[in-house]
């Protein structure tokens, strides 16, 4: 698999969301919000971007009590996240560039 830098995944909170979801089958909205330490509106915005890209599935199973929102990566989302991580690793493994060195490019 060839890594591909993905602008949708790259934003810090979206990268963290993908990393958390890649390690599990799904997560509840409030858990993601608390782990990220963001407001509901901030998390909702990032989830919408990932969902619009086809990277997330969001479900609200009905049942007894309060309805909870569950989030999971789609197969396409897992591929995008894995490819992005691979591209980042390739960037870090580039000969002649040492992260944190004075010669390293600054963004």
Descriptors for this entry?
single chain; 50% helix; mainly alpha; 107 residues; 3-stranded antiparallel sheet
Short description:
By secondary structure, the chain is mainly α. The chain is built from 5 helices and 3 strands. It has a 3-stranded antiparallel beta sheet.
Topology diagram in text:
Blueprint: H1 7-10, H2 12-22, E1 27-28, H3 29-36, H4 40-52, E2 56-59, E3 70-73, H5 75-92
Antiparallel strand pairs: 1-3, 2-3
Quick one: biggest sheet? Answer: 3 strands, antiparallel
Gyration radius over CA: 16 Å
The H-and-E topology, N to C, reads as: HHEHHEEH
Distance between the termini: 27 Å
Q: Compute the number of strand runs.
A: 3
Q: So how many helices?
A: 5
Biggest sheet strand line-up: 1-3-2
Walkthrough of the structure:
This protein has a three-stranded antiparallel β-sheet. The protein is mainly alpha-helical and 107 residues long. The radius of gyration is 16 Å and the shape is elongated. Helix content is 50%, strand content 9%.
